[in-house]
Specification:
Keywords: ATP-binding, Glycoprotein, Membrane, Nucleotide-binding, Phosphoprotein, Receptor, Signal, Transferase, Transmembrane, Transmembrane helix. One of its GO terms (molecular function) is ATP binding. It is found in: Membrane. By secondary structure, the chain is of the alpha+beta class. It folds into 2 domains: about 5-185, Jelly Rolls; about 235-335, Phosphorylase Kinase, domain 1, CATH 3.30.200. The protein is about 25% helix and about 30% strand. A hairpin with a 1-residue loop joins strand 9 and strand 10. The longest helix has about 40 residues, at about 185-220. It is rod-shaped and about 140 Å long.
Length: about 350
């Protein structure tokens, strides 16, 4: 059931449209309501219905109970509410007849108790409307309004059974913006949701386009270039290195010894026989790696080693330019620069 935002009840009468603050407010009549038969409210009473046609329309009828009268509104939105109870004493008179002898005193329970409420005293006489305002806090979607005769007042005048609580109408209105105010609350939530979702969606689209551009550029750069991985058997490498003969050994590093080898097609290679303690070998799941053979060894060996290799200045300059171009390509010329 949809949460209610307010409640207006014409006690003891039928549905009634009342003009309030330049708006037409519908007061639901409870004359034909039995218990919880209303949509989102109900009543419990040992009651009778009373009427007086000389008062404003909202006060011409009332619900009267000799003992207890309870109205309850359920499925309310939680929050703070204003409750207005409308009364008019329509049983007693101001004349000198015995009907003027009646006294009606009862208690009102809305969260707090208002003791010894007397309609005639509050209104300044009989047949006069009076509104009693209250504040209520709804935390479990239910608001209960209870009227209770506590044994005070007249019980026999003007006649038996007219001494209990009497109420003409009930107003329950929220102190906050709700669905009854044009859906502003829900619309605000929609606007906030859209405001958050749209920038996120745009950001997501930009990320996807950027990634597609990167992959597209990478594929374009790699088009026509196929990398082939060549595998050699242990027998082939033993033959190429003369069974890893000491005279073929050209160096040794932290990962193991390196041997010069010649394949069956005449290609000269460098074969690294990895140490059993090498992490590189464990990672590669192999104990033998084959590299391109560099006749002059590494650049570091040429620059700082004892090989006796002499590099003139133009050669050194070309090496520096080559290294700079390689770094520039990695950092600037790639569509998706690699992280390293």
């Amino acid at each position: 059931m949809t949460a209610a935002c307010s409640l207006h009840v014409n006690c003891g009468g039928n549905d009634l449209a009342v003009r309030e603050n330049e708006q037409s407010v519908l007061y639901e009549g409870d004359a034909n309501v039995d218990g919880g038969a209303a949509r989102n409210w109900g009543l419990s009473s040992t009651e009778s219905l009373q009427g007086n046609t000389r008062l404003p329309a909202l006060y011409t009828t009332a619900r009267l109970s000799p003992l207890t009268l309870t109205y309850f509104s359920y499925c309310l939105e939680n929050g703070e509410y204003s409750v207005k109870l409308h009364f008019a004493e329509i049983q007693f008179t101001n004349d000198s007849t015995y009907k003027s002898l009646g006294r009606r005193i009862f208690d009102i329970y809305i969260e707090r108790v208002r003791k010894d409420f007397n309609i005639e005293d509050e209104a300044g006489g009989v047949g006069r409307p009076v509104v009693a305002p209250f504040n209520a806090s709804v935390t479990d979607s239910v608001l209960e309004i209870r009227f209770y005769w506590a044994g005070k007042g007249m019980t026999r005048f003007p006649k038996a059974g007219v001494y209990g609580p009497l109420v003409s109408a009930i107003d329950i209105d929220p102190h906050f913006k709700t669905c009854s105010m044009g859906g502003k609350k829900s619309n605000k939530a929609v606007y906030i949701g859209v405001g958050i979702a749209v920038p996120f969606l745009i950001f997501l689209i930009l990320v996807v386009l950027w990634r597609r551009k990167c992959f597209k550029g990478r594929k374009a750069n790699d088009k026509g270039m196929e990398l082939k991985t060549i595998s050699f058997s242990l027998k082939q490498l033993k033959i190429a290195t003369n069974n890893f003969k000491a005279s073929n050994k050209i160096g040794e590093g932290g990962f193991g010894a390196v041997y010069k080898g010649t394949l069956s097609d005449g290609t000269v290679v460098a074969v690294k026989q990895l140490s059993s303690h090498s992490k590189q070998g464990n990672r590669m799941r192999s104990l033998l790696l084959v590299y391109e053979y560099m006749e002059n060894n590494s650049l570091a060996n040429a620059l700082f080693g004892k090989s006796g290799l002499t590099l003139d200045w133009p050669t050194r300059f070309r090496i520096c330019i080559g290294i700079a171009r390689g770094l520039a390509f990695l950092h600037e010329d790639q569509n998706c620069p690699p992280g390293h």
